[in-house]
Amino acid sequence: MKGLIFEDEKTVRNVLKRILQKESIEVLDFESGENATETIKRERPELIFLDIGLKNSNGFDILRYTNGMEDRPYVVIISGHSEHRYLIEAMKLGAYDYITKPFDIEKIKSVVNEIKQSLRLKIVSSVPKEEVIGNSQSMKEVFKLVGRAGASKEPVLITGESGTGKEIIANLIHRFSDRSDKPFIPINMAAIPIGLVESELFGYEKGAFTGADKAKEGKFLQANNGTLFLDEIGEMPLEAQAKLLRAIQEMEIVPIGGRKPIKVDVRIIAATNKDLIKLVAEGKFREDLFYRISVFEIHLPTLKERKEDIPELVNLFTKQALSQLGLKSGGFTPESIKFLTNYSFPGNVRELKNLVFKLITTYRDRPITPDLLPVNIKGEEEKNFDWKKGLEIEVRKLLTRKRKNIYIKLIEDAEYILIKEAIKHTEGNITEAAKLLGLHRNTISRKIKELEIVLKVEEI
Ligand SMILES: Nc1ncnc2c1ncn2[C@@H]1O[C@H](COP(=O)(O)OP(=O)(O)OP(=O)(O)O)[C@@H](O)[C@H]1O
Ligand SMILES: [Mg+2]
User: Which residues surround ligand 1 with Cβ inside 6 Å?
Assistant: First the structure.
């Protein structure tokens, strides 16, 4: 791993250098930002410590440059300014963290460690089968927590609305932990009949009850040395909750009908889309269990809160759907992606994924233009819009304002819209557009000139 330091204060520079070297990072340090972009381009570092107030150069420009790089490094800003606007500006430009001088050495160490973990995560998440997207600030925060949780053995509670990616994040924590080569065993509490929860979790001995003609290993034992993912934990019956708490605290289980406890070593990750605190208040969830499993809590933002991730998610799911169907081309036009980005996705990432798969399956390699999108995505206003009403309002407005030549103006506006939309529809074929409108080819050409209709290529 390679790190660069741009910092004009010698003492600060040396401290940073020593910390990085201790972390086995190869370091180059510079006292000015002169030629910084060339240096970065040449050295391709994974990490940069950047002083914003460098002499003769603007740290923000350097940051802006790294932000545009394909393999952009993690940039930690070191600054003498503690004002919010600097911090916000730096974060907006993609800085990983912002540390003000004088700084705490521990803080630097912990940032370096986080970055190291994120780098490992990047490698993990680029495994094609389970790629996890998230460039939005809120998902970056999630990834930081995933990194921290991966390094610890404590239970993790993942909360978030349905379809926000709780299971994929649970899996990521496992893959990122030192148990990644051991089993990851998911169990969905909502999918198991209440009476079977305990035998599913802890297993049973032969003869434990009528019908138990041979012993069964529970999920705890299957997950031994690995991770047990308790999905929809809010649905767990109270009695089983008591046994689960004991199993987590003692790290031992007793199969139904068994007498001897069995030692286990299992990392617990739980997930829920319920408000567990509310369930605790209602007496439906044990308070002690809640505290035990929520040592580490990761809350997943809704898709609406991180719209900027939508285009990349669409690309990923498109790629997956095309390859599943054995197609080489196909996908959404930029205009369609705009519509998707503006839609609120109450079903979050799951809804987006289902939609992409459904559309690609239906239209295969045909480019998916906005007219192929479901009406709810194109917006309610388009569905219910009453243009005559709109025209009435406009006419009244112009009349009250005592505008001149209202008739001519509105007719011209209407002609403009008619012709422009027709040409867009025929992808620039004017003869075809004239035919559709019921105009003579010469008339439409004249109107295009008179009304100064200009169509940009990307509009067609
Ligand atoms: N950040 C992401 N990057 C790529 N794919 C994602 C991401 N988040 C979710 N997905 C995909 O979206 C789908 C839903 O995610 P997941 O099953 O993890 O959600 P969930 O929160 O467990 O939902 P539910 O509450 O409905 O069980 C999955 O197919 C998952 O692979
Ligand atoms: Mg789930």
Answer: 131-134, 160, 162-168, 273, 316, 349-350, 353
